[in-house]
Write a structure and sequence with these properties.
Required for high-level post-exponential phase expression of a series of secreted proteins. This is DNA-binding response regulator. Keywords: Activator, Cytoplasm, DNA-binding, Phosphoprotein, Two-component regulatory system. The protein is elongated. With 249 residues, it is an alpha/beta fold. A five-stranded parallel sheet has the order 2-1-3-4-5, with helices on both faces. The chain has a five-stranded antiparallel sheet with strand order 10-9-8-12-11. Helix content is 37%, strand content 32%. A hairpin with a 2-residue loop joins strand 6 and strand 7.
Length: 249
């Protein structure tokens, strides 16, 4: 769920922005939660969790001894580089400062005497965030993460050819474009991957979509990228019916 934080030092504006957001969430049944609406920037910094998907509606001209809106945004960025920051302000001239500070704000909304116009701008911003996060989720669902000493690597599931156990919690990953080692177990990825990833050997998991031939005589499975896997006749005889059933489905 997406978490929303609002910070404005004027209570009347804080309540107006909060009401628009709450109404949008309730009316559209959006998977968002308004976690905090505050006039205190320090309270916001204490409350947010950078591991979640966060949205921050910030007034730029905060009358706080420690933080104005720009400095607050910079402080948020230190912990949450991917959070959505939206500035809401009465000062049109602050727009250039946002660019100069390189905060990466999603939007800059000028407060207006027309409540319907403000509502429209906030609602449009919320819709944009929903669309972007859904696209990100869809993309992430098509990828799988592999962890190694050199950092995490994300590979499209459709690009995976095979996963082989090569040591104690060490795997060799064969994809259409690269071969690399990572940490983990076959059991772990067997649970995470779709059901067309099947063991042809105890130490080898293959993508049935990428199997080209399965020869009992040669005791060999050949994958689409030319990668070959040696198996015993018993293993081939057990694997081949699974492959044939999959290809017919």
């Amino acid at each position: 769920m997406i978490k929303i934080y609002v910070c404005d030092d004027q209570e009347v504006h804080l309540q107006a922005i909060t009401q628009i957001i709450e109404n949008r969430i309730a009316f559209e049944e959006i998977s968002m939660e308004l976690v905090l609406a505050t006039t205190n920037p320090s309270e916001l910094l204490e409350r947010f969790n950078s591991q979640e998907i966060n949205v921050y509606f910030l007034d730029i001209d905060l009358s706080d001894e420690q933080y104005d809106g720009l400095n607050l945004a910079l402080k948020i960025r230190e912990s949450d580089p991917n959070g959505f920051i939206i500035f809401i302000t009465s000062h049109l001239e602050f727009g250039m400062l946002i660019f100069e500070y390189k905060i990466g704000a999603l939007n800059y909304i000028v407060k207006t005497a027309d409540p319907e116009l403000l509502k429209s701008k906030i609602n449009s911003t919320i819709d944009t965030i929903c669309e972007r996060t859904q696209n990100s989720v869809n993309q992430h669902e098509q990828e799988i993460k592999f962890a190694s000493g050199r950092g995490d690597k994300y590979i499209l599931i459709s690009d995976l050819i095979a996963l082989e156990l090569v040591g104690n919690h060490k795997l060799e990953i064969v994809s259409k474009h690269q071969v690399f080692n990572c940490n983990g177990s076959l059991g772990q990825f067997e649970d995470e991957l779709p059901n067309h990833f099947i063991r042809c050997r105890r130490d080898m998991l293959v993508n049935l979509n990428e199997v080209v031939t399965c020869s009992v005589k040669e005791e060999m499975i050949t994958m689409s990228n030319g990668f070959t896997i040696s198996c015993s006749r018993w293993q081939i005889n057990k694997f081949k019916p699974i492959l044939e059933k999959f290809k017919k489905s």
